[in-house]
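Entry 12.
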Amino acid sequence: MKVLYGVQATGNGHITRARVMAPALAKAGVEVDYLFSGRAPDGFFNMEPFGEYQCKRGLTFYMEGSKVDKWKTLTGNNPLRLVQDILALNLDDYDLVITDFEPVTAWAAKLKGVPSIGIAHQYAFLHQLPDSKSGFFFRHQIKCFAPAKIAVGIHWHHFNQAICPPLIQPPLFPPAKCANKVVVYLPHDNVEMIKRALAVHSAYDFFVYAPVDQALDDGNVHFRPFAREGFHRDLSDCAGVICNSGFGLLSEAIQYGKKILTLPQLGQAEQESNAEVLEHLGLGTVIHDLYSERVAQWLALPMPEPQLFPDLATVLAEWIAAGCNRTVQSVVDDAWSRACRPSVSGG
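Predicted 3D structure (tokens):
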């Protein structure tokens, strides 16, 4: 079986999922080519698992601080180029298209009659979630952005529906605890604002991963350049994480057993939904301003227990290699049966 795997590269979460799926698909005997869109070609890093991959422009969000810049998002994307890339994509050699919410491969498969599977957090919004965002209009947006013949959504709980557990790699380092250490990942926020907001909490050390050229220690605020291994090392032994509400990092923090303080990107319905569901499950605290009084309250909270998620990549890869010979619900049941599910506190 030969597969074209499309990955939405606007955020790192989609690429992280593809990194987890790549070895599982190879082990299952599936030949895979990769296509990424939504990011400039020079903006990728640590892409060795994907071999000779393709890049397309696709569609993306533009940010102004922690808010979606709606005007720039509207004017910065190029719908004509998107249509051209969709129509030009040659799928003759492929038996299947997998899309992680990537529009070029998704629409090319739909228009050219190639079987397709969507594997992404976004497809969980096709179900009923305990939030105020995932209604009819949002579900329609998901279907229009990256349609798939078979949609496999992932989330922190199944909510008694056909929703798989998170697709993430096992912890890179054993979980540990430095009670006064906090990891911060707010890549769209101004670093000076972050420093001013956090420096007042002098009993804690904040390790801020930001677009800086080299490590810089400024009192109790420690800036670090983006580096996957270094980030996971700090994540493994911190007490908590301050971040936006992207699904991938929140899932990793839950798996490591870290308390979470999250600031959803305003105007980004997916992140606003994630924040609501996180609080519904009792897995984190939501704020909208780093100067909030709730920061000090959150810092004093105890750490939760780590929650290891099952090896969903192997379950999905074996299912795909077998020609998707069972229902999504049976795949969901298989996956959740291999792990202890997070409990629902709030209904």
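Annotation: The radius of gyration is 20 Å. The longest strand covers residues 2-8.
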